[in-house]
Amino acid sequence: MSPSIRPSGGPDAVVIGGGHNGLVCAAYLARAGLRPLVLEARRAVGGCASTVDAVGARVNICNCDHIFFRTTSIAEDLNLAGHGLTYLDVDPNMVNLFWDGSTPWAVRRSVTETLDVLSATHPGEVNGYKRYVADTAPVAALLVEVATRLPTPANALRSVAGRRFRGAVRMARFARMSALDVARSYFSTDALVGPLMAMGPAVWGVSPADPGTGLGALGYAFRHAIGVGRPTGGSGALTDALQRSLEAAGGSVRCGARVSRIVTSGDRVVGVELGTGEVIETGIVVGACDPRAVLVDFLRDPPAGVVALRDRWAARPVPGGYESKIDAVIEELPRYRDLGPVTDTVSDPDDLLRPSSYICPPVEEICAAPGIVATGHVPESPVMFVNLPSVVDASMRPEGGHVFSLEALGTPYSLAGGWDPEGEPRRWLDRYGSLVEGDFAATIRDWRVVTPVDYERDFAMSRGYAPSFSGSPLSALAGRDRELTRYETPVEGLYLTGAGTFPGAGIWGASGRNAASVILQRHR
User: What is the pTM of this model?
Assistant: First the structure.
């Protein structure tokens, strides 16, 4: 390693942001012999993957279901089990409920068991589901393999050839279609189409009818191939284990350290400056946060060859947030009304409270939601994700109660009339209460709401929006937006990782590992 990469006494690399991708990237760098320093503005690592104390309990900042992370070898590579990480499997892995009273149903890890559920709840959809699984399983497997390697044409060709081209043609076709068209080519009712749209495009804040969203219709396939797991102790147990692994390998974390500027000299990085004025010298900087913040807010004096890139990012519109979350402690478990034949597919009715419940309006309303959000309003019947983490994980159970979380999609940053907990958020609780027996509101011991405004303030998410890679796997393979798909920028020593880079949002970690691979190739 050249002396310019390791300033005397300073870290070899500085990672801006202690979310799971930043920690993964830093841990791989540390295992390779570098001395990375993770700078986190908050008082603890984890970002949106963290678990915090609130309302008299431990609550997850975002949904606690982990799927994609367990497709990677990150846990084994970084010995996360040795640093305290264990997973609890969740099966059934989702329960689907509907505002219009459609028959509920559940997805099991096993395809056969899911078909048994559908035979009881939606017999007319069984054959379509069989076709769906047969067609999408190879696509999902290929997509996961492509995402867990550096997305280059050569690597993609190896993945495709290794699978004898299974899934490649269909993946290319789905990538150009809308998620709605993909789903409706297999299913005839909203009861099967709606949950796919809710866990795909609706989470991204876009309409499922938009062309290019087709791969968002793979949700059921991923749940069968991978399943759902939850870290014991909450989602933040993952990032806590990552921090311990990083530190055991010689890296370090510094919380309460807010970066204000990336320092450059000529066409290369030489350090970062904190809000206090302190400068930390280093030859490698990894932005593990919003790419726009890195390239526009932190890179104040870019080298001449980077001005055009910075201006392009500065001109991009900043979307408003589209999701809010309620955390509560409830004194008794909710009991859903009119579950119908799905109750006959489980041995214990409480099994249907273990997974997240996806509560969906008709598909036309899911498609219309982005337009409603753009006017500053929340849809009348928003998509909701509801889970009770303490049913699966006894370590999260507060004394005399349970943890309840509700995520409402389609909640704008600039809400008409402003954000008031007793306004829209209270309406969501009442709306949810209409699905359960008794007086749900009376069971709530304490609750809070986290709105897009809160996400902006507490997690540096501009306008409450969580950046996510918006390109397709094909665009990544083609190297479009190279700073997002190849993880490096024209500024020597400046790299990007995180949800804004390929493969995108969710608890995955592939971006962090891929970025570390690129850095090590450049600076061995």
Answer: 0.95
